Each structure stands twice: as structure tokens, then as C-alpha cells.
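Hi P.,

Sorry for the delay on this. The queue was packed all week, but I finally got your sequence through. Input first:
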Amino acid sequence: MHRFYMSLMTKRLSLGLLLTLLLASLVFPGCEGGGGKAGKAFTRAGERGINRLLRKGRREVRRSIRQLTKRDQVPLEEKETLTAYRIMATEPSWLVRERRYESYYFNLLTDLIVGDYDLNPETGQARNQKAARAIVNYELVDSAMLARAANPDLRLLVLVTCYGDYGPRGNQSPAQLYRGFLEDEGLQRVLADSLRALLSHPRLMGNGVVLDFQQVPEGMEEPYFVMVRNLRKWLGDKLIYLKLPPLTAAGTHVYQPGLIQRLVGTELVDTYIVTGYDLQRPDTLSGPAPIESPGPHDIARTVAYYREAGIPDQQLVVEFPGHGLVWESRPGRRFALRPTQNHLPVRSIPRGKRTYAPDSSYVLVAGSEGDQWYTFDDQRTLRPKYQWVKAQGLGGISLMGPGYRHANEEQWQGLAGSFGANPPKLVYPAIALLLMCLGGGIVYSVIRYWQVRNEIARKRSHQWFYGLSLFMISLVFIACMVVTIPTEVTAGSGFILIMFPFLRRWRSMARRWGIG
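Then the structure:
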């Protein structure tokens, strides 16, 4: 079972058991001690039995409560995501097979994108149908399903890719096959049926799809729009996210302002993921994801382009890579991007002395032979980029391949530092639970023991004592629960508290009519 889930459930179960025993020792002796001989006898027996269980556990309870009520010492598995932002992670199929997900903290994510469903434009089905069907058997999916117990807001989506690299087939080039799919609603219906069957699988229970269509042939704006509209209709209530290319000379293609405005105006897409990498110049040393650069392309210009096209800020999510770039030295202290295999996972970059760019926009590491250099992002360079996303009021961030990085907590610590929130303190629900037990103990002692009822009936002051005690307990209980439970429940409790003073009048009327 996933390490995060096991750690979380073990802590909660052990702490819950210890708190229950402690509350029992505090409540029952105090609630029933005023109820005559039977109440006192119960108190003595209860104290002896419960104290045996708690003699060695009270110190651990106090330590656990102190740890969970200190907001600056919350462990990563207890962190929550700020509700104003979307935190996504895309895990391609080859990383899933490497089991990199075992070190993930799913509680820090709002969306997990798994894949990939690589489209065959000739049939509308997956190019590798066996790999597509295997998505539901991923242990990553099992871990995500378990994590939903602790993070019910976690959404699971399937990545659908089409990069224009399929073909040629016969006399048809890859571009012609691409065009044929975009113009054939029958093939699009096959895709929708396959995705709907995949998303509804009991092992997956997916929430939607992410469309990553690259190298769309020029002049296909209208067929592309019709395809998205058809998928929206055939997938029903499933979410549709659209991955947008970076703003480069060859990157925008069909994603012109006119098409973006139509997609936004018809509300066909729920979220737009902007690719925030592959923005470097091949002849200038730089990082893979610059916010601002002296060149013509960077994240700021890309986001501004899609903003001006009409995408609302809250629907824009910037994706950061888990890979770095490989550079080669050139005469005259110049660098050039290696012609082939110039992308390398961060975990595969040789370890060495890290040199940060003057503006801290990337990390530079020299290769062992001195003729190659590597640039990438670590948490020191990503932190200001995360803050830039927040300052711009955007919807959040996406991590492309968290498994590309080393299996440590560094990237998750950085993510939690920028977008994580501490869970609410347990002091208020603990007080509310204690008060609920105290109030229940008072009512139980009145119902269970005739000595208590006789004492209340004999002295009017005792009636006021019990009544005011229940009133004050209810008042403080509601005050504590206001910060921990939904408004509807709080309103219901408030109504009961308001009606409490009328109980005495109703009791008198009942006696007058011979009832009770």
C-alpha cells in the first residue's frame, strides 16, 4: 500500500484511539459523580478500569496533540492545497512503469493526469490499445484511489495525445491522416466511446480527459473546434482540459485568438494548461522554463498571449517540466543546444557543483568531460516562478513528470511552501467533542439514575444548575464547531440553541394538559 496513505491512516487511527480513551476517562467520572450512590460507584469503577489503560498513554497523547496543534510542524502528508489554486501532476506511462509515484504526496494535488492514450488518427482508437487498456491496471491508479479517501477532491484524468507523427500510410502523409481525423465525426465518435468506456471503468472512475494535440495542420481551426465540441457532447459531464503549446515560432499553429475565443465563449473547455517550457533559444544558454528572457519567447509572453485571446486567469494553469536541457560548448565562450537528445530527466543529470544564473532563473551544472553543460530548475529557482503564478492571479500550476526528478521530498517541500496550507487545528474539534460528551453525560445521568432525578425534583436550584450547564455547554460547543463544520450544520445547531429557552414553557404546558 502507498507509503503516504499508510502513514496518514496509522497516525489518525492511533491518535483517535488514544483521544477516545482519554476523553472517556475525563467525561464519565465527571458527568455522573453527582448522581447519588449509584453514580459514585460507577465513577470509582470507571476510574480504576480506564486508568489502567491510560497510565502509559497520556504522555503520548499530549505529545501528539502538541504536534498536531502547532501549525509550523505539520508533516507533508498532513498538508492541504490552498483552495484558490489547482495543483496538477502528469505521469506518462513510462514513468508509471518505473513506480516513481511511490514517493508522491497526493494530498498536495488537486488533479492527477495519467496516460497516455496516444491517438491513432486512422481508426480513432489508441495506437497501442494494450497500453491504453493497461491504464486501469496501473498501481498508480490504485494509490490514487486510496488517496481519495484522505483527499476526496483529487481528480483523476487520462492524457490523450496526438503529435502528428503517425504515418505515412499508403499515399497519405501524417498531415493528411491528421486532417482526415479532424474532418471525420465517425472517427471522433470512436474516440469518445473508447474514452467513455475507459473513464467509467470501476478501477479508474476517471473525472475527465486532457487533450494534448500538437502539430495541428494549419487551416484546421474549424474542424478542430468541431472535434472539441463533439467530445464535449459525447463525454457528458466529464471534464475536458486543453493543453496549449508554448508561444514559439512553430508552436501556436491552430491555437489562434479566434479559435481560443470561440472555445472560451462556448465553455467547451474547463481548464487550459499552458506549456511553460521549450521556450529557450538554441544559441543562448538558458533554462527550460524562463519567466522572462531577453529572447522573443518566455512564460510571461506565452501567458499574455493566451490571456489576450480571452482565457480567464482562473482557467489558466502553467506547466513546469521535470527535465533539463543539454548544451555543448562552442568556441568563444558560446553555447549551443545539443542537436539531438537535448532533453534529460533531472534525476539523470550528473551531480556536480551547482551554479545559479544571475537572476536565479535556472541551475547550471558542468558535465564530467567539460564540453557539456546542463540547465534545469530546482526548488530555489522554481519558488519565484510559483510566486509569479500567484501574483498574476492564475489558476495554478502543473508538474510534467514529477518522476523525472529525484525520489526525495525536495520538490514536494517547495510545492507545499508555495501552495500548501496547514490543516485546521485540532483544538477546536477536540473541545467540541469533549463538550458533547459532557452534555451527553449529564443527560445520561438524569435518565439512568433515579437518585439524580429525585435530587433535581427536590431542589429547584438543581434544575437551574443542570439547565444552565447544558445551555453553556451547547453555546461553547456551537462556537467551536463553527470553524470546523459546514454552515448548514452550524445553522441547525444554532436553531436548537435558540429554541432551548422555550423548553421550560412547553414542559409546563404539557403538565397542564396532563401530558408527561
